[in-house]
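User: Fold this; tokens only.

Assistant: Input:
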Amino acid sequence: MRAYDLVELAARNLREAALRNSLTTMGISVGVASLVAMLSLGIGLQKLVNRQLGRSGLFDSIFVTSRQGQRGRTPLAPVITGQPRSLDDTARKDFAKMPEVLEVYPIISAAGEFRTETRPEDAHFAVVGALPPSARASEAFDDLQGTFYSGESVPEVLILADFARELLGLPPEARTAEQSLKPEQAAQLLGKQLTFRYAEREGSDSAPAPAQAPATEPAQKNDSQAADETPGASSAFSVVRREQKVKIVGILTTEPYRGLRSGSTSVFLPLAYAESLNMMQPGDLRNLMRPGQGKSYNALLVRVIKSKDVQAVEEKIRQQGFGAFSLLDASRNVTIFFTILDMFLGVFGSLALAVASLGIINTLVMAILERRREIGIMKAIGATDGDVKRIFLFEAGAMGILGGVLGIGIGWAIGRVINFGTNLYLRRIDIKPENFWYVPLWLVLAALGFSVAVSLGAARYPASRAAKLDPVKALRHD
């Protein structure tokens, strides 16, 4: 049988039972729509999470901590390899020497008190951080009001919009709204001076080692001298209250590098200026008890030249005895989670398509009963079993293609409507709208192919049954 005749016969058969075939096609489209809607939701949520992680600008960065004093595994040291070392100046220089590394700088997080010139009686407390010059390229500065630092060691600050509202005496916005200040509000703060009070860590981080007695005259050590030679005993510092005048040069909506900070930082100093202040940080007492050479750090941020080198540099750092963590680790865990979620959503979405396949079987079996005489005549005039099979398979394939196309369109429309309705609700509660529904091209092609495959699979039994029909019995029956 020629291909043209095959198509003509199948198309005529579909038209003759239009209502039944249309209902079967709609069943297929509902199954495909549920599959597309569920998978596009999972894919959209995954892209949303990765987009939020990407906004931190830290996919080329590694967060490094000391493992001294830690027991077991921690999220920052998932694989323990080298002997634990102190995170000091020596370690910082070692990291900077790696050919893949662009820069290394400390993570600074300290408490500070701020007072404005207009209302000096009101104290505002905030967590103070520091930013290097390279931070200007972060996406967090896309909506910057004002300017970036004019230099690396200048007494200037960038503040978050929420803290700016506090300084102005305005009510806080919703935590997730991330709305910029109005221009007239920002103008009241930009260029203004703040009185910044903080605790300075005064004293050497590592005093010279005590002089050794000559070998011929061994010295007798008392208990206090022995204690002085224990790790950290030669280091000491005092805490002194300090005050500085700083100028507000910019206001941010989004916190830069939020992905690798444990808390919320509201005020940011230039990195070199912040290091010169030697501010007291929460981990300084712990670092005092750790042996090291030079200044010790709570954490260092290692930025690599190319993102593809993050994993290799991270492994080198761990082999040197440090805890290392990057957003690639978090992204990898997110990918695993959403892969499992997509599998579950795909299984549930496929159930409706499986039910639709039963409708295909029912439709084609009924077609066999109604067309026994026609099948008998075709076989009597020379049609082969393969010709009869191909007619039924073509009919099923046509319903699968049409149902798949309709289902993809319906699934996309469902996603758009739900996304639109959800964003309307988010706007009402002052949450920034997001696009969490995404239909990639591969999902469209996969859904269409799956629809056709299920239709052809469901048609195998009816097609085989029609091909085996005895023409003599079929003609005698009618």
